[in-house]
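Input:
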Amino acid sequence: MDAIVLQILNGLDKGSAYALIALGLTLIFGTLGVVNFAHGALFMIGAFCAVTFSRILTWSHTVIDETKKDFLGNPLKVEVPHIYDWFGQTTGDAIIDWAVPLSLLFTVPVMLFVGYAMERGLIKHFYKRPHADQILVTFGLAIVLQEVIKYYYGANPIPIPAPEVFAGSFDFGALLGFEANTIIYPYWRLVYFAFAAVIIGAVFAFLQFTTFGMVVRAGMADRETVGLLGINIDKRFTIMFGIAAAVAGLAGVMYAPINSPNYHMGMDFLVLSFVVVVVGGMGSLPGAVLAGFLLGILESIASMAQVLEYLPGLNQIIIYLVAIIILLTRPRGLMGRKGVMED
Amino acid sequence: MLGLDKKDFNLLLIVACLTMLAPFILNPFPEGSGLAQFNAGYPDLMQRFVIFGIFAIGFNILFGLTGYLSFGHAAFLGVGSYAAIWMMKLLTTNVIPAMIMAVVIAGVFALVVGYVSLRRSGIYFSILTLAFAQMSFAMAYSVLTPITGGETGLQLKLADARILDGALEAGVQARANIFGLNMSSSAELSLGSWLFTFNAGYYLAAIVMLVAFYLAIRIFRSPFGLMLRAVKSNQQRMNYTGLNARPYTLAAFVISGMYAGLAGGLMVAMDTQVGPERMFWTASGEVVLMTILGGAGTLIGPVLGAGLIKYMENILSKINSDILHTWFAFLPDGLEDFIITLIYPFIGKGWHLTLGIIFMLVVIFLPGGLVEGGQRIAKLFKRKDASEDTAQSTPAE
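Output:
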């Protein structure tokens, strides 16, 4: 029992990442009708925003400390981050420690801009082209983005620590009445899950309770009629693309401490996220979120030792297996809408 | 000739000449000269050209004709490779049975995958094939280790059964051969400072590719090929005229899977080892790149695309900053450094970036690939009254 609870918890953080990426993919698909293979690259760029931000924070200059001597007897040279000069050492350290959460603030405008530029610069020209062309051009874009990142940041994963406060683990077992130390769960993963829940909630609230969101939903249902009512729906869809990019970027930032960012992390997640979107149903936002968590948890449960004893290797294939079964039995996915992608 | 019209026959003839003379054509620069690194006429790379050519021709039969974009074709290549190496381990190191087995097993596997995947179309089909391929990859990596050798893969070993072959002499290793002719044996011809290598394996692969290319032309020109194009242009209309398109698309899928299996078998024949990474989805993505880059739906396009990508992968990636410095040494220092900083990200390890950019440009501006580019250039130089009939390389609409 405790093992199952632990695996469900383990599934939650992976599921959160799937759900966030799949949510963005579905937003783009539902609004613009574009299959965006570069969405994984946006996730990766988000993670590298965190890297960049923490590098900016630790950007330092050399100071000669006369009071200390190095082993040759010369005055010691110390690297001092600029941030110490501005805020003093204690505050500076605290800011550097909180680099990942703080970089969220930095990431949002960057990702909004990246998304906006991508839509206006490239995707816009592909609305009238077949889906295969959209897949191909965004696939090419993903390669380019990934290689650019590789050029500037190198091919090795760059570890980014979470803030000191969240470094430890939380003993869930004691809380739920199991024996102590049976269910240990890192704090940061809890934070990630909570963060994902907040973002997902925010996106849904934005679509559900604002006028802007209402117009966007109307546009998703029937674009031409909204246009006939004299609303510039294209402009709003462009903004939605920016928001979808920001969601992917934020997911990437917060994932950086869990999995050190490397240049191909986006592609790794993208393939699975596409499976998630299709399982959830193309164009269905709740479906994407549901399928994201479902597949994340299923994957974790399948990797339990007790399961692997009977069905070895199941953890490797469970997601694809579920996808195949669902696509063949429920052609529109779990919560797919009628008339989406049925050409 | 051979059941082809004149135009197709000429195309086949040109391709045949090019592949047969490839050791000369791909080695235009003398040994030891500064440009020698652009020579592609060494056996390993030439084999890759033709093998990936076969793979791309096969993929094109599916994607170019029917428009079904498969993102899992590498699985068939991998399955073919595993089948081939097992034939060589168990039966004989002669490559003929290995290749036949590779084609058959890949065909059967494609039949199963295709039967399920073709129930859906569009992006769903892409995701289904991707899912199947990733599953095969994951299983080859983990559960099927007794059959696939897991992460290390399979190689020929001294202890293999090889029922049809006699016992090996002491100190001799089992090598892929065709009726005794070793696949890695080469003849060399030295003319002045030029050195040409004629490799047995390359010529076997080239002949197989020519056969595959010939069959592809026949398929393109057959009523069956026409039916596949009809599927691409409007499946709805096909269904309403009372035609069930599924058997045709399934046949195309299986044929294209068999081509991939053949390519996999040839890979094993050239280099007797297999690993699961051959089935990873990036390998499937690569064949998509090749086909689109060359020109989907055209006969020669996929081969060109495969050649271009493999050339870039092997030649462009070798250029490093030292080589750039020797090239631009004639410029003043400041300018030299500036130009090198500009170029450097695109070569050497960054060749993927160049590939990605070229690919995007092709998708955006030349949906018909390099072949369409060639046609447009040819049109500029042609007189207006020249025949507009470029049927042999018009992309299937």
